[in-house]
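Retro notes (design track)

What went well: tokenization of the new backbones is finally stable.
What didn't: we kept losing track of which sequence belonged to which structure.
Fix going forward: every design gets posted as structure first, then sequence, in one message. First example under the new rule, 184 residues:
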């Protein structure tokens, strides 16, 4: 992955585009979380109901703070801790978080990425991005750019291909406040 690819991908996001990119576990579909039209495109591509909500992925805690409402420093520290396996945290919503991100929930799923590619992408973009597996609902998540192309053909604005090893298990999902494991 070249610096040009990262800059170009960030430009596509800022222009309202929908991209595919490698996360820690699978390829994800992403867009600017504040761009309602781009989020709607992702939901249509995935055939995913809006009420389910979406995950945000970020390079660091600062990029997530506009979307979450957590005052307890110990919980903020917990969000920043590196875990053995990628962990998505369910957090209380910030009052200004758009409803198209949370769906029917009063919380939002967020993850500080450990993927060097995704971290660099979020840094180049300058904020968190939407992260949902790159597959139509009911199909296996894409693990290669070729599978992304098979699923979505020319419907994406850019596919960021990068060579790195993906975890075999999906991220675990944990409620930050209660500690309850939702998906292990």
């Amino acid at each position: 992955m070249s610096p040009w690819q990262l800059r170009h991908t960030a430009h596509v996001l800022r222009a309202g585009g929908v991209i595919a990119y490698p996360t820690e576990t699978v390829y994800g579909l992403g867009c600017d979380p504040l761009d309602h039209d781009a989020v709607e495109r992702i939901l249509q591509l995935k055939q995913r109901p809006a009420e389910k909500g979406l995950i945000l992925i970020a390079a660091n805690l600062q990029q997530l703070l506009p979307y979450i409402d957590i005052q307890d420093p110990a919980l903020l520290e917990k969000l920043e801790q590196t875990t053995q396996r990628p962990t998505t945290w369910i957090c209380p919503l910030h009052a200004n978080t758009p409803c198209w991100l949370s769906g029917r929930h009063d919380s939002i799923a967020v993850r500080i990425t450990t993927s060097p590619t995704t971290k660099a992408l979020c840094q180049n973009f300058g904020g968190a991005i939407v992260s949902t597996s790159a597959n139509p609902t009911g199909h296996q998540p894409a693990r290669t750019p070729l599978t992304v192309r098979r699923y979505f053909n020319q419907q994406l604005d850019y596919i960021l291909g990068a060579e790195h090893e993906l975890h075999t298990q999906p991220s675990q999902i944990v409620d930050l406040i209660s500690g309850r494991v939702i998906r292990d």
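Added context from the reviewer: Residues 90 and 175 are 5 Å apart (CA to CA).
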